[in-house]
Design a protein that fits this description.
single chain, 611 residues, alpha+beta, elongated
Length: 611
């Protein structure tokens, strides 16, 4: 008996017996299957034929258009961003177009020769080595280095960076297979931090982030162009194919009213003042009285737009227009001008002031210096910056009149010179004033404004009562050189010329006879006013230090310029410093730069005390 091996035995499956067929006969059902197969083939042929007829006979243009669309390749042509210039054409910001040159090693390595379409319209054959030699010559590098960088199996190999546009144009005309030029725009600020906050800077190298770069971004950026060319199935450019060019439209230049040299001088002066006083910040504005043009607007810790991250974010703006603070006694000029214009006082009107502290409707108002009973002129009240005298005289104005006159002088209205985040300040409606605020607004407390707002108010007094809106943007210059002046806003007659002259006489007397003698400049007649007010704490809880300012104009026989100096939270006490030296330094430089002739005649000396 056979033993099992432990492996399964293969089984044998019997096939069923077949019915014998006669030669030449088909199996049952074969004819039906044949007819079915022929029918299916016929249907398929009809479908394919119909499709071919539709495509080739009825939609030839559509197929060709789709094929052409697949062969077209666009290349962006960058528009050149417009420049930012000072009043004399000094470049504060400009852009340069540069190109990166790269090559597809796979395409270039497989190409032994290619065809090039010349400017004359001839089609010439060029070897790979010849093309790479020409490219190396344009790039100013060794042909061996170019050949090595162009050979291999990488789709991208960088050959050169920062290629100038004229060289890029010549490189493109070589029509080397696989060669690509990519345009980039670089923004440069050749004067560094000069007017850095005003000029602003770009984010990602393309979009304005601050200053003029931000507010004028649309005009500066221009419109990109496009080059459309045709490639073959091998990825190579077809020399006689489509080559369409839509030129880029470069951006416009923005010309400012600033004088870059004076701006630099002002920035140095105000930075020195800030550091000497240990102040948190300081600002300085210089304006032309007869045009409203801002020729310098300096802030401390000004950013360099080439490296805006080099300063804190809070220092990257323009505090002269963004920072609103209680101005203090510079506001007294507006109260006294209103009294004169309303016919309620003259510079020589007299007022009895029994003490350095006085009670008005239950509110105690005090002066910055102690004194006994005095009889002062209106000019003396301004010259010695007396709060008690300002309120005593100002009571002749109703609350509504006080409010309306501050509005006429531009308080509560942003200057709108084309910078981001310009402050309008705070001027509450007179109906909302409490018993104290209705008094303090007359000497610059309970109201807030920016430095440029104060300058605008004083400009109207220097300009015979006519207020001109400050101007920072002078014109736009198109790529073809056409210059479009920015129209100034309509002037406003705030007070009469006679009132303006009387106020100027009081301001000049504040320097000649009052307490602002250190604002005097040898050879020139000067009028000025100081201001001091407590500065609210950053957390809103009480007051932390104070804001001090000095605003003045010169020459008083023919007023042409205004300078205001502001410092925030200086460390010394009020009696230990003066802003006069900084004012004198900057105003003197302005007068010399503009060749302003020394004053003629004697300065005004209005009496400060009653006879």
């Amino acid at each position: 008996m056979a033993q099992s091996t432990g492996k399964p035995r293969p089984t044998t499956r019997r096939q069923p017996a077949r019915t014998p067929q006669r030669a030449g006969t088909s199996p049952p059902g074969a004819g039906g299957r044949l007819r079915l197969g022929l029918g299916i083939m016929l249907v398929l042929l009809l479908v394919v034929g119909g499709k071919l007829f539709m495509v080739q006979g009825l939609d030839v243009g559509g197929v060709a258009a789709e094929a052409l669309e697949n062969r077209l390749r666009p290349a962006v042509l960058l528009a050149e961003r417009g420049s930012i210039l000072d009043a004399k054409g000094t470049v504060l910001a400009n852009s340069v177009i540069r190109y990166d040159v790269s090559i597809d090693q796979v395409i270039n390595t497989e190409t032994e020769e290619f065809h090039r379409l010349t400017d004359a319209g001839d089609l010439v054959k060029v070897t790979r080595d010849q093309g790479l030699s020409e490219l190396a010559a344009l790039l100013g590098t060794k042909v061996e280095d170019v050949r090595e960088a162009s050979t291999g199996d990488r789709k991208y190999s960088l050959l050169a960076r920062d290629v100038e546009p004229d060289i890029e144009d010549r490189i493109s005309k070589l029509q080397i297979p696989g060669l690509v030029t990519t345009g980039t725009s670089k923004r440069v600020y050749p004067n560094g931090s000069v007017a850095g906050g005003i000029v602003g800077f770009l984010v990602d190298g393309t979009t304005g982030q601050a200053g003029i770069e931000q507010t004028q971004d649309e005009l500066l950026r221009g419109t990109n162009g496009e080059r459309l060319y045709e490639i073959g199935a091998d990825g190579l450019r077809i020399p006689v194919g489509i080559d369409e060019l839509t030129p880029a439209v470069d951006g416009k230049d923005v010309k400012l009213t600033l004088d870059a040299d004076l701006q630099y001088f002002a920035q140095q002066a105000i930075q020195t003042q800030k550091e000497a006083l240990g102040a948190e910040w300081a600002s300085l504005v210089v304006s032309e009285i007869k045009t409203g043009n801002v020729i310098a607007m300096a802030d401390t810790n000004t950013p360099d737009p080439n490296n805006p991250g080099g300063v804190d974010a809070k220092d990257r703006g323009v505090r002269s227009v963004t920072a609103a603070y209680e101005p203090g006694s510079v506001e007294k000029m507006m109260t006294l001008a209103a009294l004169i214009e309303e016919g309620k006082a003259t510079p020589l009107s007299e007022y009895d002031l029994p003490s350095w502290e006085m009670n008005f409707n239950g509110q105690t108002i005090g002066d910055s210096f102690e004194h006994g009973p005095e009889r002062r002129t209106l000019a003396g009240i301004l010259g010695y910056s007396m709060n008690t005298g300002t309120v005593t005289a100002g009571k002749a104005l109703t609350k509504e009149q006080r409010y309306n006159w501050l509005k006429k002088f531009g308080i509560g209205e942003a200057p709108d010179v084309g910078l981001p985040s310009e402050a309008a300040g705070i001027l509450a409606p007179w109906e909302q004033w409490d018993e104290r605020q209705e008094l303090t607004v007359m000497f610059g407390q309970g109201v807030s404004q920016s430095t440029l707002q104060t300058v605008r108010a004083y400009q109207s007094i220097g300009n015979n009562g006519v207020m001109l809106q400050p101007r920072l943007i002078d014109s736009y210059i198109s790529p073809d050189g056409t210059e479009e002046k920015v129209e100034p806003k309509p002037p406003q007659q705030v007070v009469s010329a006679g009132t303006a002259q009387q106020v100027r006489d009081m301001l000049e007397s504040a320097v000649t006879e009052g307490r602002i003698k250190d604002a005097a400049i040898d050879g020139y007649r000067v009028g000025a006013k100081t201001g001091t007010a407590e500065s609210p704490c950053d957390n809103g809880a009480g007051f932390c230090g104070f804001t001090s300012s000095l605003v003045g104009m010169a020459p008083m026989d023919d007023p042409q310029f205004i300078v205001e100096v502001v410092v925030q939270r200086p460390q010394p006490k009020l009696t230990t410093f003066s802003l006069g030296p900084t004012f004198r330094s900057v105003m003197g430089q302005v007068l010399r730069t503009h060749n302003v002739q020394p004053s003629k005649g004697e300065p005004v000396r209005l009496p400060q005390f009653a006879e």
